Amino acid sequence: MLALLQRVKPARVDVDGHTVGAIDAGLLILVCAERGDTSVLADKLLAKILKLRIFSDDAGKMNKSVQDVGGGLLIVSQFTLAADTSGGNRPSFTNAAPPDEGRRLYDYFVAQARVAHSVVQTGQFGADMQVHLVNDGPVTIPLTVR
Questions:
Q1: Which residue in the list 6, 55, 78, 109 is annotated as catalytic?
Q2: Is there a catalytic annotation at residue 125?
Q3: How is residue 82 annotated by DSSP?
């Protein structure tokens, strides 16, 4: 599974002019399931995200996790993270999981996040979303679990 994390303050997702998910400070998580991914990989990805120390401590060093600072999670499905641009100017998305499998793994990831963390908001799977954010730092980190 693939994820792109952005440390934010704040972030929101709009669909058809209505906000469907919003957080104050925390992590915007763009997540993509690839062909062959499993719930075990989703669990590994979530565990890594929750423990990743990318928030500042009192000395200004990145030494705290989103759980340590009580930040929110805004989880947004984004199959374009699986883009393959090696074959020309038009990306191929054949590495992305098929929509039904991608939805199943996205829903599983969100459900597990809600069990493990107190503030979890989401986008809308498969929708045309507008993501608004203030990237804090900026801090943007790609993650892949296999």
A1: 78
A2: no
A3: G
